[in-house]
Amino acid sequence: MNGEAQKVLIADDDGINRQVLATLLKPDHVVLLAKSGEQALERAQRHLPDLVMLDVMLPDMDGYEVLRRLRADPATAHIEVIFITGMGRPEDEARGLKLGAADYITKPFNSTVVMARVATHLQVVRQRRLLEHLAHMDGLTELANRRRFDDIYAVEWERARRHQHALSVAILDIDAFKQYNDHYGHPAGDRVLRAVAREARSAMRRPSDLAARYGGEELVLLMPETDAAQALFVAEALREAVAQLLVPHERSTVSPVLTVSIGGATMAAGGAEDAPALFDAADEALYRAKESGRNRVNWRLECAPSDS
Ligand SMILES: Nc1nc2c(ncn2[C@@H]2O[C@H](COP(=O)(O)OP(=O)(O)OP(=O)(O)O)[C@@H](O)[C@H]2O)c(=O)[nH]1
Q1: Given ligand 1 and candidates 179, 181, 192, 259, which is best to mutate, with the most ligand atoms within 8 Å of its CB?
Q2: At the N or C end, where does the chain have fewer CB atoms within 10 A?
Q3: DSSP state letters, 78-127
Q4: Does the record bear Transport in its keywords (predicted)?
């Protein structure tokens, strides 16, 4: 995450200024260019740069208006903006900063100072991203945490409903994990949880798939645009992959090695269950997988389409 070059959008109607700034920034950053306010907004929305270097005087709208519009759109609201301008009066600078600009640089500028300020602001962006990432992550398994799952689940459920896509969700529970902890110790239990999490992560092949840690020893899998047959296949492969880790579990009544049970449910394209009902169906399927002997996958094949 830290190694990627950060994107800087330079919005200035003066070709020479654009060139000078681009030459300074190109060695270490991905540079995008815009000549007008409209172009700056369009590029910002499309490329989501980390930082915008914004001239106050643009032909179609002033930089303050560009900044206001960036802040008004949730997708671009958090992009850092540095004003870079010939208007050096303190009131101009105060106005820019009040609107939420990170910095204000007056022309003619000193290249070394510009570079240093850009580096400082990009560092802040990097640290903020890292904090956001950590806030969404479970520390033990490095999977997404429950909060992250709940957010993504709500978004994907709504997307599936709107576009009439299938949506599959599964809950995985380690079998006889209490006995594992009791017999092998909690640190060994943690190692096992991490190993199962690694398998869950690698079972999630598509970019929109998500594996998350839902609670103590429960993981959840979210598979958008995946019908019941495909999701069941993935879940079965994951169950098998965990068994194939061949982690000895002397106290399990299910198998001599560590196993998992998985319950899943699929909202069929056009189905109209609500998001909690789909999750409850997966939970119910997990309960049945446990009840019928563990080390198995149980699927609620299709959620009933709505009557309406
Ligand atoms: N090592 C470790 N154990 C955890 C963690 N979170 C929860 N657990 C343990 O997971 C166990 C869950 O136990 P139960 O809910 O009884 O489930 P189980 O023994 O797997 O029984 P079945 O699911 O019915 O097969 C408890 O012993 C918890 O202490 C964790 O982060 N690390």
Answers
A1: 181
A2: C
A3: T-EEEEEES---HHHHHHHHHTT-SEEEESS--HHHHHHHHHHHHHHHHH
A4: no
